[in-house]
Amino acid sequence: MEHAKTVELRGHLIDQGVFARVMDDVLEYSGAYTIDRFDVGRHHTDESYVQLTVSAETPEQVERIIMRLQTHGANPLDPGIAVLKPAPRDGVFPEDFYSTTNFDTQIRLNGNWMDVENSEMDCGIIVTEDRSSAKTLPVSDVKEGELVVCGGEGVKVLPLPEPERKSPESSNFEFMSGGVSSERPQALQVRQIAERMREVKARGEKILWVGGPAIVHTGAGKALEALINEGYADVVFAGNALAAHDIESNLFGTSLGVDLDKGHGVPHGHEHHIRAINKIRTCGSIAEAVEQGVLKGGIMHALVKNKKDFVLVGSVRDDGPLPDVYTDVIEGQRAMRAALPGVGFAIMVATMLHSIATGNILPAKVPLVSVDINPATVTKLADRGSAQAIGVITDIGLFCEQLAGELVVGYKRD
Amino acid sequence: MEHAKTVELRGHLIDQGVFARVMDDVLEYSGAYTIDRFDVGRHHTDESYVQLTVSAETPEQVERIIMRLQTHGANPLDPGIAVLKPAPRDGVFPEDFYSTTNFDTQIRLNGNWMDVENSEMDCGIIVTEDRSSAKTLPVSDVKEGELVVCGGEGVKVLPLPEPERKSPESSNFEFMSGGVSSERPQALQVRQIAERMREVKARGEKILWVGGPAIVHTGAGKALEALINEGYADVVFAGNALAAHDIESNLFGTSLGVDLDKGHGVPHGHEHHIRAINKIRTCGSIAEAVEQGVLKGGIMHALVKNKKDFVLVGSVRDDGPLPDVYTDVIEGQRAMRAALPGVGFAIMVATMLHSIATGNILPAKVPLVSVDINPATVTKLADRGSAQAIGVITDIGLFCEQLAGELVVGYKRD
Amino acid sequence: MEHAKTVELRGHLIDQGVFARVMDDVLEYSGAYTIDRFDVGRHHTDESYVQLTVSAETPEQVERIIMRLQTHGANPLDPGIAVLKPAPRDGVFPEDFYSTTNFDTQIRLNGNWMDVENSEMDCGIIVTEDRSSAKTLPVSDVKEGELVVCGGEGVKVLPLPEPERKSPESSNFEFMSGGVSSERPQALQVRQIAERMREVKARGEKILWVGGPAIVHTGAGKALEALINEGYADVVFAGNALAAHDIESNLFGTSLGVDLDKGHGVPHGHEHHIRAINKIRTCGSIAEAVEQGVLKGGIMHALVKNKKDFVLVGSVRDDGPLPDVYTDVIEGQRAMRAALPGVGFAIMVATMLHSIATGNILPAKVPLVSVDINPATVTKLADRGSAQAIGVITDIGLFCEQLAGELVVGYKRD
Amino acid sequence: MEHAKTVELRGHLIDQGVFARVMDDVLEYSGAYTIDRFDVGRHHTDESYVQLTVSAETPEQVERIIMRLQTHGANPLDPGIAVLKPAPRDGVFPEDFYSTTNFDTQIRLNGNWMDVENSEMDCGIIVTEDRSSAKTLPVSDVKEGELVVCGGEGVKVLPLPEPERKSPESSNFEFMSGGVSSERPQALQVRQIAERMREVKARGEKILWVGGPAIVHTGAGKALEALINEGYADVVFAGNALAAHDIESNLFGTSLGVDLDKGHGVPHGHEHHIRAINKIRTCGSIAEAVEQGVLKGGIMHALVKNKKDFVLVGSVRDDGPLPDVYTDVIEGQRAMRAALPGVGFAIMVATMLHSIATGNILPAKVPLVSVDINPATVTKLADRGSAQAIGVITDIGLFCEQLAGELVVGYKRD
Lengths: 414, 414, 414, 414
Hints:
Helix content of chain A: 25-40%
Distance between the termini of chain A: 71 Å
Oligomer: homotetramer
Shape of chain A: globular
């Protein structure tokens, strides 16, 4: 262990488990540590301060450990200067490019720290030729010759602002982060999510919904429509299926062959689905279908009428698809990124694919709630490192119904 | 295939799939058939009539096939006379005893058919010494020397009355039987179940609830309490856990360490659980705890106050248990059987163990709804041959909340 | 019910449940029927013959019912002549286009029936200008002016050849179609699937694998690699994730941060993932990475080395992606269709997205097995109308391990 | 916060997260703390030492917090003397009885600490009249007048011995404790469990199996039989169902109507089940059925032949039951407790009910593995505070097959 570097960190290091994770990671990465200084906070409102020296076999290993510890808010006493290398080809990063987290990040090119725009994980950091600004960029978008930050020198990851200290009086919302389970007081959870949405709206931030077609199959389309009309959905990310089933159920009163008002199958269900898509293709787009009076209700209609953004990105299993759907997934990701500014809260309902896609591009600081009857979806999202992810395992149909009941005055299914 | 016997059956044999199952079963049991006569109904309201001869290698095989076909309503042209043999020992049936289904059954001792009391599956049929009456009996309850029907001769299984013919105008309730899925219009399902409960109550029949502790964990205890007070639960079957968590949450405001009003953990959760049980043991029983003013709210309190029946049967995982719990499961089953008369509808919520136990003793003619977030529970119940089983895969907390909203005027969680 | 039409059907109509479904569908579609003739087969090897007249309120309704009944093999006594209309625009069908099933289909333009090429569901049927041939086409691929079959006149759907008659001696494979359950004799199922694969290979047909990244996460990559080398995978459909995790685990020995040989996490897991993708982007393609000696093992390496086809189609959640990935999903679908000829068996493992995508384009006559630990995936595939779908709910890792053990002589994990 | 008490703790307090949990719990219990002293270990092999003063509104609250912190190994500087009160009635503890954890515990009656026999959670601690020994006792077994420890004074909970320090070289087994997931390298997990079983056997400790009927349904009975014969199962806890289905499949070749060798249904499945039970009731017991040559193979046969202990405890859903089944669940629990001494490893397969029952009575120091295809079972067990619980979500049939392949030389299914 001949190579070493000293880092410092400050904060609620013990009761938040931060320092335990730091020590854990050093060993996980085959390093060693010496605690040089530990000033413990005497009471639970006091911060602690730690200085520790990390050592490993090679300088590269030390550097990787440091990069890792940065995600916990540990920063080198001597931060160094960012190394820049040109991208060797369009769509290719230099081999040792710095791979981003979804936390706010800064780089240091000379004496000063500069913010990196657009926190997004698994990207590179691109610096303008005049070195006046830096931003994250996915590998597919880099151009040959653009300057890419390489190695971990001169990069600082800013930890999330601490959640309010835990106390019997503090917000009850946090508890949901303690793992996921279907055995929770669900009516209470709905109310807490409603409360959070009201706060977000009051702050003037946008609410992003990411949804799957089960919203329509479970009869929750009317609830979501009401929430859109009431202003509780500013941006919607979805696939072809949500929009197509929503439109099908409004053109034909069915979704995948289930008559939503009566609950039983109707003639030639699948056929309705592809006919609905063909109809909108005839109109030209969903907005034109609304304008032409073809589409008169439902989720998509409400989005068009309320001039809300939606981004529909296609998938390999799509029929049609609808004319509004991005069939190129990389273009779809770009459109999703473009719709993120201003989003202060994300709710993801009944879609693993689009939830993970959104989790990939969402900054860690945006709180998100994932709602699904399938625990795997909810767990997977949390595993992707979305620090603010909260999972609710419940029934989509009843969840949306009750959320609308909480947020929309006079909401009552007919 | 030297041995043969002819059976006849009448009804909506094709569109209900009955005849397909008959033919299927003959082959499944290694037999063969010849269709002697087939009078097909010309329109969908007409009945059909079939006579077919079943053959197999041995007379025993023929007899087993006939026994099987009886469950579809096929009866031998020549029904025969029931064979009676004495039980060789307490708790033991003769080797070739007739094993019952949960359909209504008749036996023929001389010229006339006699009803068998208490349809219950996997039992024997016991005939009184004077041969004046017959009833089902589980093997554990038979006494040495009691007369037991053996073989399938002289036994007739009555098929369920046909559900209303399928038509666009008929009740929508049926559709749920078409498999189980979480992707259903759930709010609609709740309303249909509520409607069915109103009908059952209007007919003066009892509603049986079978429930697991998740009712309490998901915060649905208040909804169930309201439903009991409103008369929508006449009998409750459960285990120690439902009652203990309900009582715990009412004595201490917690269930398994979750503060139900705030949603977060409270001091020493598990301890509360066993303390609640000890408290009721100190009082002597749940009813005495209510009388002594110790227990002032919750599901069990509502049952006591409204003088409703409840049967709590223990399981090997129980703490305590509460003094009202049957620790002997066979005695528990007897108590459950004793509470069944008058039950016209059964709803099973969040418990695989007690749901299957109830499914075992419930006559096939009692409609039952199984509600669980876990598809396996719902599917398993259907697989046990409960012909009237309807499965709803949804969230327990929200389900009970909405059911109370439908059935209890002015119901609103505080 | 003033409008009517007579259809006939022949086959094992009762024991296969075909006729029950026919009657069911007529009522479901708000029609009525009269059975004009019913010649029942006397023994279970005899076919039956039915003639029935379907009536409904409008001629359109009658036509829709007939279209529906065709999927059961019922054909009009008077089949009519197919109506052709030109596509009004690129990517748009005429409003009343005939929407295909995935069964073999024929159309009748004048006196003779002509095969429709490429059975695929939810498509239109396009006829060449000289009316010499017809093929299915997805709506996105139709060009303005192309002739599209409209309405159900002159269209005949050929039912699947009947499976071998059910008998105690017949193949055991069928049983799996009887619903899905994790409670099956799994080791036996694996052996039956292996047996089926040997038969397919012996017939010179191709085996299609559709796989998700869990194959790599569960350590099953080596088993699949061995199966590819042994010739049990001719075509692979997957997404960016399977390929990227496979390549990552071969370049870095990890998959999503799990060290596959030791089973515990390694430094900066996610980073490895995006670095692996960047590495292949640097090489230009997976094949070039193999050629340059960069990629030396794993699933993708085995596919390249054995010159097997693979189609990777992107999704909105992709990182990178790998240079071989179709980022346009419609182009990806086209590439998948192009790889289907010759496929005689499809096995879908651990991917709902690509399984459904494949189910959408696969003719109904190709048998498919869906393997997943999540019952929802398996059920959903069956619900999409894939008539030959067989579901196995089991663990992917152990499944592939045992399949390789059955099919690859001397297979033993090191 | 006028009442206070000082505790000390020593060990790897930070990297194991112990101290974070201590601080967390103080706040959770509405207390406050002051860190009086904190000597941090400089390297990861050094222990730390903390002294902190806990304060709360009332002395009772302080006491409860202290009781809670004891589970983390924190002990009061001044431990106090245990308070003893007589049980007020048979089966009832004094109101403020000390409720046990499943950790090793000591009490102090005068100057010295005395071990409490039989660590088991949710029990009371009973002291002999001469105060020479102490043991845990479930509430149902206490007799009026027996001395019961009340309050937390004079009680010390001993933390588990620390697992080996985490390092790249250490045992890989631990990793599984990091949450449960079906996306793990499963073949590897099986091998690690096999390795652990060999170690346990080599130490002369017993292996406890807790199993559900799915072992038989999934065709894993033969694998378990082989493991019993090879000495890898010393004690089996199960219910009526496992034994009955095992016996049914050996008497009739079926389990719940599934022919296990062919995989398809056989005549009158359910009937076989109850006939098998009646047969054993005729014999008198399972052992007598083996002796009389009636039962010639299977799990239960292997247990009898190898003179291994088994405890079958009934449940309310049982048919029959078999004569060996404890129908009284409290007696069943006693029989299970009596079979625990010497058990050094527990494996729980496909049974939530018996797994939790066993988890309730098992000391925390016995490592346990829970195997189920249903994540809920595995998660629930971990939630019950079983500190050594490891969850494997996989297919039971393939799991047992591969485990037998690892442990039984020449094991090969015929």
